[in-house]
Design brief:
The complex is a heterodimer. By secondary structure, chain A is of the alpha/beta class. Chain A contains 15 helices and 15 strands. Chain A folds into three domains: 246 residues, Rossmann fold, CATH 3.40.50; 141 residues, Rossmann fold (3-Layer(aba) Sandwich), CATH 3.40.50; 37 residues, no CATH class. Chain A is globular and about 75 Å long. In chain B, strand 2 and strand 3 form a beta hairpin. Classes of the chains: A alpha/beta, B alpha/beta. The interface between A and B is large, with 59 and 46 residues.
Chain lengths: 433, 322
């Protein structure tokens, strides 16, 4: 094995190369394009024996991916943001095909207004499609979760497509050390796709995605997708165990950092969670009992594992890098549903929305989240917490001032914008408890 | 941890500078993170790239707000607010500028407590093709300078990193870049190790992030619309220019539809006498007009030279002249 600096995009391309993919349907979009550029260059140089086809859209690209996988070849594709949404109709369809292929999604916020920078609204829009979701927090995880992912999705108990998600910029364009396994070791871990059960051949026609009127067959087929996705949690654990034995890197559905004796636990996904880990290490050094739980799997949702990990904790801080408009943080809602009704569930769950459109989350903001959560916890213990704390967008007085300047330049006709100053921060100058 | 932010313009090799430094530090046993920050980038627009290096795995991510070293490859960026050159520069930080002006002048101008060091920009290469100008060498030069200021990268590690990261360049360009990097490394011997690693402020030094409740605004305020006309005029994109088109009006045949219409920024207007005039506040220096002019009377002049010239250029400087 060799350790070298590479971007998350390049790590995704290496995963496809090491997995020996046969077919790469492609369509460019920032910040994903480096992945298909890299694969295209390797194919041109004869270093990767695969066929790449550029399609007219992501909709066609995902259609091609699903149909090729049905024919029994190993398929890799990649997109971002608007591209994933443009493919949305086919995401649901190819999951229904039970066609296993891997799609790297390089997360980027959705228009409007348009941005290039990351949040998880794109990948979470595909939450209910039937594609499994693996969320990476480092360039190494992009590679490893992709290799693990192929084993999981090609398992006969699962046979569903999957998304490996990496954050635009924070992983896609960031080089960090990645250990590349030897091709032979990967080949031993990930044997060729056994397509015997799929069976689409020129001489052996097959009707795929047939119409079923009346709810009974429809209910059966869609619910079977759901049961297969639930199976994937166990398959993922088995495959991770094998991966750990072969490559020395151990994964599970949840990253647990400093959780054992923690009183307050952060729950968040993706590369921003490494910033939370950094803040937790600082607080731990100061004697604070805080920890971090990071789901690597979003679909299937590791509800039991999360609930067990949080049993007996005093409070949970959920940081959502996404926004379900009209509801709030998606992970917060999902976690609450996993915890409701459990005797030992944490009494306080706070919700923070941060990192939308790549807005950074600073170290002191993690400190402040713990501080506000502790205040709510103290009220709860004193019996004076009347309702759960309101969700909070991470947004500062300085940011509002900057925004008001933009609005003034844009000639937004409103006295509020032209003349007023943002109200002073309610907690200005105060330190966390 | 060492946190280094490189500032420059698209095309100067700033991303490559971060990669050269990142690879050199990685070879010296550091854990490393390096990344460019792209926007709607193009040649001449402000860009930056950053490097983090530490002996332990790095959990910090994203843009560096409190750098130990800021390197500015193009001193005209200092006046561009959006470039953010001064963000987080404090008394313990080092600021290195490629500039003809002395460090004391910059320290006074910027009113900064940071240690300020200047280094001559790379000299234009007389053999280089006209349009490439001196700028691709800037990245190489700042990578060597930064390596020396950190004091933890030996010259041999810098050379190995240059060979690794510049491999795609043609041999002569690679050699020129290598020379720039090593010359900068040698020139800053007196400042070796001027940059000191430091931890980020810990839990004990925490300050309030200054959060507010985002106010509800009605849709006529909160929809992302620009009501003001022509706000792009307020943005002086002329600062992006590395090469300036200069029209020799004595040879101009006033066929202004050839140069003014193709200008993608509508930065060429026609005066009452029918001569094209270039709006230098907004010309980004794409040089399409230079290519378009059928009589070859628009020259491409390196911006730094052009700023010192007030008269029309002599004929021998004209672009595309056989």
């Amino acid at each position: 094995m060799s350790r070298s600096l590479m971007t998350g995009n390049r790590a995704a391309a290496w995963a496809a190369r090491l997995a020996g993919v046969d077919y790469v349907p492609a369509f460019p979009i920032t910040p994903q394009t480096e992945i298909i550029e890299t694969l295209s260059e390797w194919i041109r140089r004869g270093e990767l024996d695969a066929r790449m086809t550029t399609l007219d859209s992501e909709h066609s690209m995902v259609t091609a991916a699903g149909t090729a996988a049905t024919a029994g070849v190993r398929v890799f594709t990649a997109t971002s943001s608007q591209g994933l949404l443009y493919a949305m109709e086919m995401l649901y369809a190819v999951a229904g095909f039970r066609a296993p292929f891997l799609l790297a999604n390089v997360s980027r916020g959705l228009a409007a207004p348009i941005t290039l920078e990351p949040d998880h609204c794109d990948v979470l829009a595909a939450r209910d499609s039937g594609l499994l979701q693996f969320h990476a927090a480092s360039c190494q995880e992009v590679l490893d979760l992709s290799l693990i992912g192929y084993r999981v999705i090609e398992d006969k108990r699962v046979r569903l497509p999957a998304i490996v998600n990496l954050d635009g910029f924070y992983l896609s364009f960031t080089r960090e050390p990645v250990e590349l396994p030897e091709a032979e070791a990967v080949a031993a871990f990930l044997p060729p796709f056994d397509a015997s059960a799929l069976g689409l051949r020129a001489g052996q026609p097959l009707s795929q995605a047939v119409a079923v009127l009346g709810g009974t067959p429809y209910s059966y087929f869609r619910y079977e997708c759901h049961l297969a996705a639930l199976q994937a949690e166990r398959v993922f654990a088995e495959v991770c165990e094998d991966f750990g034995e072969r490559f020395g890197r151990n994964y599970s559905a949840l990253e647990r950092y400093a959780c054992d004796d923690a009183e307050i636990v952060f729950v968040m996904m993706g590369s921003f969670a490494s910033k939370a880990r950094d803040a937790v290490a600082q607080m731990r050094a100061a004697g604070e009992r805080v920890g971090l739980l990071r789901p690597r799997l979003l679909r299937p949702f590791p509800a039991d594992a999360l609930a067990q990990a949080l049993d007996g904790k005093a409070a949970v801080v959920v940081v959502d890098q996404n926004l379900s408009i009209g509801k709030g943080g998606v992970l917060h809602a999902e976690l609450c549903s996993a915890l409701y009704g459990r005797a030992d569930a944490p009494g306080v769950i706070t919700s923070f929305i941060g990192g939308l459109g790549g807005r950074d989350i600073r170290r002191e903001e993690f400190f402040q989240m713990v501080s506000e959560t502790r205040e709510a916890l103290q009220k709860a213990r004193a019996g004076t917490l009347e309702a759960p704390p309101a969700p909070r967008l991470l947004f500062t007085a300085d940011e509002l001032r900057e925004l008001r300047k933009m609005q003034a330049i844009a000639a937004v006709r409103d006295a509020e914008v032209r003349s007023s100053r943002p109200p002073p921060a309610p907690n200005a100058g105060s330190q966390g408890s | 941890m060492l946190r280094i932010r490189f500032h420059g313009r698209g095309g100067q090799g700033i991303k490559t500078a971060s990669r050269v430094l990142g690879s050199a530090l990685f070879a010296e046993g550091f854990e490393v993170q390096d990344a460019p920050r792209y926007g709607a980038e193009r040649r001449g627009a402000p860009i930056f790239a950053y490097v983090r290096a530490d002996r332990a795995p790095i959990d910090e991510r994203g843009v560096i707000e409190r750098p130990e070293l800021v390197v500015v490859g193009d001193d005209s960026l200092v006046q561009v607010a959006g470039a953010g050159v001064g963000v987080g520069l404090d008394a313990e930080a080092v600021l290195l500028l490629l500039s003809q002006e002395p460090a004391a002048v910059w320290k006074q101008r910027l009113q900064t407590e940071a240690t300020v060091i200047t280094l001559e920009p790379p000299a234009p290469d007389p053999d280089a093709p006209l349009r490439s100008g001196p700028e691709p060498l800037v990245g190489a030069r700042v990578s060597g300078a930064a390596a020396r200021l950190l004091g933890v990268v030996p010259r041999t590690a810098l050379e190995a990193a240059l060979a690794q990261e510049l491999g795609a360049l043609p041999t002569t360009a690679r050699e020129r870049a290598r020379q720039q990097a090593l010359e900068a490394f040698d020139a800053l011997a007196a400042h070796a190790g001027a940059v000191r690693a430091r931890p980020a402020p810990g839990y004990a030094e925490r300050t309030s992030p200054g959060w507010i409740e985002l106010p509800f605004d009605p849709a006529d305020v909160s929809a992302p619309a620009i009501h003001a006309p022509a706000t792009s005029v307020l943005v002086r994109t002329g600062l992006w220019r590395s090469m300036r088109p200069v029209i020799d009006h004595s040879g101009c045949k006033r066929c202004h539809f050839m140069c003014a219409l193709p200008c993608p920024d509508s930065a060429i207007t026609v005066d009452d006498a029918g001569y094209p005039q270039i709006d230098l506040e907004h010309c980004k220096g794409c040089l399409i007009c230079v290519a378009q002019c059928p009589f070859h009377v628009i020259a491409a002049v390196p911006e730094a030279e052009a700023q010192n010239e007030t008269t029309a250029l002599p004929r021998e400087r004209r672009a595309h002249e056989p």
